[in-house]
Structure formats: structure tokens, C-alpha cells
Amino acid sequence: MKGFKGFSPQTIDFLWEIRMNNNKEWMDQNRDRYKEVLKEPFDRLAFSLSEELNERTGEDLDWAISRINRDIRYSKDKSPYRSCRWVVFKEPMAVGTTWKTRPVFYFELTPEGYTHGMGFYETTPTYMKAFRKKVEANASSFLNIVNDLEKKSRFALIGDDYKRVDATGVDEEIRPWYIKKNFAVVETKGMEDILFTEKLPQMLAKEWKVLIPLYQYLRGIKID
User: Can you name the residues that pair with 203 across neighbouring β-strands?
Assistant: First the structure.
């Protein structure tokens, strides 16, 4: 597979247009265009970024790319297609959709710009219970990771909180993480020139390197 050469202005145009024309008739007329300006560049990005991650971090990860079709069976929004596209980098052992409950790196392109970082698509109460147990066992170890991340990066913690979690005695700096029922650390950017160059994979891999200690901490959590 050829290396990533950058997205094109046509990629962004396509995302805007599918947002405004989200129907099967329009998509059928633009299927070849979709493959040329969106699908193929994303495939090349995934390949190139996987190589960069391995070289810069030592992490040999698989990837999964979002489909253009949306699963609308249980959604109030019946728009059949996504007006964005994302790629996740996951553990090789994570088959099928099991990666959704494990930590992953991800990049998402939208008509307005992009978001990237590391976290969970979704988590389980069992996993988060094991996470809190690990934090409790050695709070200073997790605090060092959190402090280092805040000093060296612009990634922000996001996610929903549990309404009822006993955080008595938990360090104030750890508490925002401790009470989460799902979370990610992300950076959201607007439309930048880097998106249209071959340097995007290198930039992302470099930015994600600071997330490796947290990723390895989360990846090491085992549940029965």
C-alpha cells in the first residue's frame, strides 16, 4: 500500500456534502468519489500511522476504520451515513468489536477539523471497578502518570461520571479520573494545514508518545 500523502480539499468537501445530502440517492451517485477522496486516503493513513506508532513507541497495533454506513436500528437519528470518519489503533488480540471496551488510540476527521487522543469507545462497570481497585492499590503510581501527562501535553480528560462513587480519601488530582464510568484524553483542532500533508502520521505518533504510560497502565488492567 502506498504511503499517506495527505487528505485533499475534496475530502473535506465530501464530508460537508454528505452532511447536507445524507441519503442513499446522493451516496449512490457519489460512491466512486467516496472511495477516491475518503476511503483510500484513510486506508493509507492507517497503514502509515501504524508504522509510525511502532517506530516511535514500540507498540505494534492493529487498526479499525469506521464504515460510512451508520447503524440506525436503535438511534433516533436515522441519517444513513456518517459525515465524519475515524480510525482506532487497538491491541492485536482485540478481535471483532471487543476493542470497544479496551483502551485505543484514535483519530477522527470531521468537516470542521479533527480530534485525536486515547481512551475508550465504551467501558464496562467491571473494567472500571478493576481500574479503581488498581488506583487504590498504588495511588502514587497513577498520580505520577496523570501529573506527567498534564505537564507534557494539551490532551484534556473527557467522559461521563458515575453519579454515586465513594471517592472518600482519593487524592483530589486523581478524583476526576476515579469517578468516571468512561473516559478519554483528547485534543480537538480546527482545519489545519497538517491534514493535507504527508507529515500527519508522524505528528500524531509524536503527540501520542506522551500517552503511552497511561495506555500501558490501562492495558494492563485484567478482569476475570
Answer: none
